[in-house]
Amino acid sequence: MKNITIKNWKGEEFTGEWNSKTYSPKINNDENLVRIYINNEQIHVYKDELAKISEDAEKTMLNIDIEQINRILSKYDAEEILKITNVVFANQGKIREALNNSTEAVVAYSKVYDNLETIKNNLKRKSLR
Questions:
Q1: What is residue 14's predicted lDDT score, i.e. its pLDDT?
Q2: Which residue, 36, 42, 49, 127, shows the most beta carbons closer than 10 Å to its own?
């Protein structure tokens, strides 16, 4: 569930938890409308309004960078980091499935995955020296 603030098709603002799902509209037969549920309340919104929310969520998730990962991993020695990255790599399919193939989550996970792979390769090179 994501906390969002969005305007419905009438311009009224709603805030609450959204399950990230969209449904066909029950009003106006307008192809630009979708139906969503916020706090289990049915809301009709324009697709472009909903796209703004999705873009914001994606930008937030993509703020994960190599420096943040390095700060977290700096608490572990090289052997522990290799174990962690091996678990991530071995369970990639399960992790993607757990993310429900949400575009934003998969993109963010892919970025973390790539950064972990870079770290793992750097650690391997250091250990070969």
A1: 92
A2: 36
Q: In this predicted model, what pLDDT tens digit does every residue of 67-87 receive, in sequence order?
A: 666 677 777 777 777 777 777
d(Cα 37, Cα 40) in Å, to the nearest integer? 5
Domain borders along the chain are: 2-57, 62-128
DSSP 86-122: HHHHHTHHHHHHHTTT-HHHHHHHHHHHHHHHHHHHH
* Number of CB atoms found within 10 A of residue 116's CB: 19
Buried b (16+ CB within 10 A) or exposed e, 31-44: eebbebebeeeebb
